[in-house]
Amino acid sequence: METGLTTARKVRPRRFGGDQILKGLVGAAAIFVVLLLIALGVELTEGASLSLTTFGPGFLIGTTWDPVHEIFGALPYIYGTLLTSALALLIGLPIGLGVAIFLTEKVRGSKLFGYALGTLVELLAAVPSVIYGLWGLFFLSPVLKTYVETPLHAYLGFVPLFASVPFGLDFFTAGIILAIMIIPTVSAVSRDILNAVPNSQREAMYSLGATHWEVIRRSVLPYARSGIFGATILGLGRAVGETMAVTFVIGNTPRITASLFSGGYTLSAVIANEFAEASYPLYVSALIEIGLILFGLALIINLFARLLIWRMTRTTRFRV
Amino acid sequence: MENGDLGKGTYRRRHLFDRIMTGFIFLAVFVAVLPLVLIVADVVIQGGAELSLDFFTKLPTPVGIAGGGIANAIQGSAILVGLASLIAVPIGVGAGIYFSEWPESRLSAISSFMNDVLAEFPSITIGIFVYIIIVLPTRTFSAVAGAVALSIIMIPIVARTTEESLKIVPVSLREASLALGIPRWKTVLRIVISTGRSGLVTGVLLAIARATGETAPLLFTAFGSGYFFNSLWSPIAALPLTIYTYGTSPYSDWIAKAWGAALVLVGFMLILNLGVKLLIGRRYAGVRAEI
Amino acid sequence: MQTSRKAVSGTTIALVVVIVIVIAGFGAYVAFYTPGPTTVTSVSTSVSTSVATSVATSVSTSVATSVSTATSVSTSVSTSVSTSVTTATSTYLAAATINGAGGTLVFPLMSSWIFGFTQVQPNIEVNYSPVGSGAGIAQITAGTVNFGESDAPLKTSQYAALPNGSTLLTIPVSASGVVPAYNIPGISSTTHLNFTGNVLAGIFLGDITAWNAPAIAALNPGATLPSNPIVVVHRSDGSGTMYAFTQYLSDSNATWRTKVGFSTSVDWPTGIGCKGNAGVAGCIANTQYSIGPLEIAYQIQNPGAINYGAVQNHAGHFVLANLTNINLAVQAGASSGLPAGNAQWSSFSIINNIFNDSMDTQVYPVTTFTYALVYQSLSASYAGTSNAQAVGLVNFLWWVVNSGQNAGKNIGYPSLPANVVTLDDTTLNSITYNGTPILGS
Fold first, then answer.
1. Would the CB atoms of C14 and A24 count as touching at under 8 Å?
2. Does residue B274 form part of some domain?
3. Which of B85, B256, C202, C361 could form a disulfide with C207 if both were Cys (CB 3.0 to 4.6 A apart)?
4. CATH numbers and ranges of domains, chain A
């Protein structure tokens, strides 16, 4: 490593040096991502073109999905995806964050315990989605139905959220399963981010007399804000895109209702259920258009999120 | 940081609030660990009985015929995930480096945004996409197609976590390195990445875990097979496919095999996790960046 | 320090790298991809043995065809196969890998068949992927598999989508039945409720809502039916089982026929959707007062766990499904006439045939065939099929139809009746490779 202090060398900006090579290579990777997305978009649009021309914008607000009579409408699925993802984030994000905070802030003395717990939580990420589905169907769904949904419906049935007769296969169970699935992602990513927050931040707060929680809330979390947003995006990605596990527990009935205990359907689930059996071109095209809708949904959600973040963090990206 | 909030309220009230939040955090951990323990216990209990030497070394047998194993699925998954990582890790890490080190460029903003969108794609749509661009033109299902599908799922995870891990490395570290005359590329590769390597590794491990457990993208690409690996351009078996076809069948011996396969999958991830972390060494369980 | 030249920007390098990678990738693809999944080496080793024997002299010509990169077939096939590849197992066929895709219904049976066939012909590898009947049809149409498998025959529009000039053969290889499974606390497992097609349609339409509705009670005078509401369970994914079930409902009930119709996936008027037969079985087990259509193999494999009812056939008898009466149904349905293998089967309905057959009192009405789909004229232009693959495929199907039918008994599948086997044999005999019949007549 040249120190530059003892040797008086002339440093010229290189025309073609290591800096440019690195920037070129990693830039190529970034370009590749863009190309990939464009290719995906093109293929999806091409595949969906038949359905796009047949149904037009009515596809987005149609509520009937009838393969026999060739009528397709995606609104119930859009609703289901939004609802279950929101539920999953609402539950999974705080819990994942809580685990991460626990591992980085609370478990100071016993490194082995923190290490073991962290690894165990990350192991949840490795469980295949089919197992989540089977476990959800045979274990979680009856448990939730008996101990959570039925009492809630019995006592608070007048609230629209709990109005339907619960069967255990509904938005609620699907949301919970998705939340469980995103916890390892959120917690693993957040934990590394929180670990990387410099101690000077914490020490400064402590020196001002803050309680532990105040230290976390006011200096650690804001510093890690961007990283936690990244964890959220990855978690959201898992929740929106999850195909297998959801179809086992959501009841697979296209329905738009405020009740959490009603069966529902999501965009990914309908593709997973029906693509293999789609027997004529319009049917296939309609299902590919559903994939296109998911594409569009992801674009819109991310656009909003980016604008929000940009508003919130109008500082330099690098921190001292 | 907001002004003056710390001074408000009595110490007792803040202390109580602190206790409550600590309680919530413990509750969160409990709620997270509970399903984890239940699922892993379920997998261990239902799958444990299946483990035997035969299970790891033999090819699958049809219903009703004892013996038989998932050797080809283990081999197939290893090959698929290995190939997928070979593709996804360089691209993902590269993109992540670009997002973090050159955030002001327009390409960075666009690509980073696209990367997030890619993260939210359903795995089955990615499988269909790869089917259209690889399987149909080559007129065969193949390990290559399966690996490509898995790599598309992995890239956004690796890229995003790399970006975040590198972004949180303090600027002062970079500035110090540059001030000493270290060229920028060496700074990035040697110092920044080395500092943020735990996050990077976590991202790669997460991506591998995700790829190993995905079923939908393999249905139309890798296709599944009852035999050992043949060639890159022919169908190949995979653990999630085995779990899916066996687990949803009506036969108890097949269902037991599905749980056994799930146990093998989770066990493999555990070993990978532990192995990698041991190699990478410190920076786990609470070692912090000291500045 | 000034330089007079501008540094090459990183973006330029990035673009150059991308272009280089794309070109290199394309080059690698062209260089390494070999059309046709058979391994050339294994074919050539078998040449020496097969030339000596009378079996398949056409194998020797396949070396030339698979080595050449062009898909054109060498004309050395002129040494036509006068000595046919019989099912005699004294000599082994050339090595080949055959890929098939299709419905999940037949997958357990298929794996038994593959296992059994491999004992007889160890060089032939068969892969089957249970991706669904529709996907099976799509794959055979696209030419990515050597054979397709489907629980429902092709529709007219699917026949039209086949490659020009090609004929797809429909070969029934097995059958299955669909039972109405239910979970009613208070009804013991030895009592089997009776249902008619009309009543089932009413339940699944959502018109009959309580278990003690008059329509159900009239059919089951001896049972005490609870007043609880019926929870309808159906399949969420498309499946041949649902094709058969909805076809039966359409035949029984005019409202169902017009409002819902029949297909592998329909717009169910009511109820919750559960994924796969396993999902339906699980949903029924977990939900009291539920009813749903389940494939017979599931019930046979889990006898204690699933209660199911009897269905009325056209002769007026309430038949509780088992392999025997499903067999009878298949026989009855087949004896009313099956289309030829190379004809279009779009309008064929075994359920209709059974429906119209009022002679047999013991047939189970909700029965369905499951079909293998193969092109009649195999050649390298369809899915890049090599001769060895074609020979292996036809022999495999021959074995399945003639020798493999017993394999299903222990796992819940009926066997094909003799008249169907005869029809299938005729169809298989008509398959040619490059114009030459593979099986001698």
1. yes
2. yes
3. C202
4. 54-313 (1.10.3720.10)
